[in-house]
Structures are given as C-alpha cells and as structure tokens.
Amino acid sequence: MVMGLLSNAARKIVFWTYPRTSWQWDVLCLLILVFIFLTPKGWFANPGFRRHRTVVIAADVVGGQADRAGLERRAREVADAPSGKVTEVRERRDAQGKLVAYEVDIR
User: Fold this and answer.
1) How many separate helices (H) and strands (E) can be counted in the chain?
2) Three-state secondary-structure class, residue 33
3) Quick check: 105 and 53 in contact, CB under 8 A?
C-alpha cells in the first residue's frame, strides 16, 4: 500500500498531472521562486573560467630578441591591464619562418 502510494506520487510528479489551480502547482511555483531569488551566485561561478584576452605585439615593436619581462610589460600596457597575469606567450611566424609577432594571453 505504501509502495503504491509512493509510486503513484512519483509518477504524478514526473509527468506533472496536477492542474494549475491545485495547491501542488502553487508549491512548485513557490519552490521555483525560492530557487531563483535565494540561490547564492557562487553556486554558478566557474573558478576555471576567467576573462582573458589575447594581445598581438609586432616583433619589430619589441625588437627581434625580446625578453619575456619586456613582452609582458608591453602586453599589459596594450591590454590596459596593469595587474593582469600573463599566462602564455607564443611566437607567430610567417611562411618563411621569420618571426612576425608575439601572441600574449592575459588574465
């Protein structure tokens, strides 16, 4: 008897056979509103996702043999992010293999 009552209630909830004017509908709407307005923003924050930007700096702007510190400083200036963290520096070369620019990722 108890098992039949539980399975009947579960079936009604899954397939939602309750009419709009029932108290069950009101409880569902209330639960949805509580979830929307009382859920902390931190539950949906993705710590792995941070806004980052890729800056391209021409090789002749920083010189042929640019040091990483100089590249990072220049990339922060271009990105207007003085406290940004440089995560990666990549060289961009043309078809002949000549160094053309640097791609710098900043978070």
Assistant:
1) 4, 3
2) helix
3) yes
Taking the model in full, what pTM does it have?
A: 0.48
Where does residue 57 rank: exposed (0-12), middle (13-18), buried (19+ CB within 10 A)? buried
Asked if residue 73 lies in contact with residue 98, where contact means CB atoms within 8 angstroms, the answer is: no
Greatest extent of the chain over all pairs of C-alpha atoms, in Å: 83
Q: Which two tokens stand for residue 53?
A: 């930007």
Which distant-in-sequence residues (6+ apart) come within 8 Å of 50 by Cβ? 107
Tens of pLDDT, residue by residue, the chain (107 residues): 778 888 888 888 888 888 889 998 999 899 999 999 999 888 887 665 556 788 888 887 766 556 778 888 888 888 888 888 888 888 888 899 888 888 888 88
Nearest to 103 by CA among 81, 71, 73: 71
Q: Is 75 exposed, middle or buried (0-12, 13-18, 19+ CB in 10 A)?
A: buried
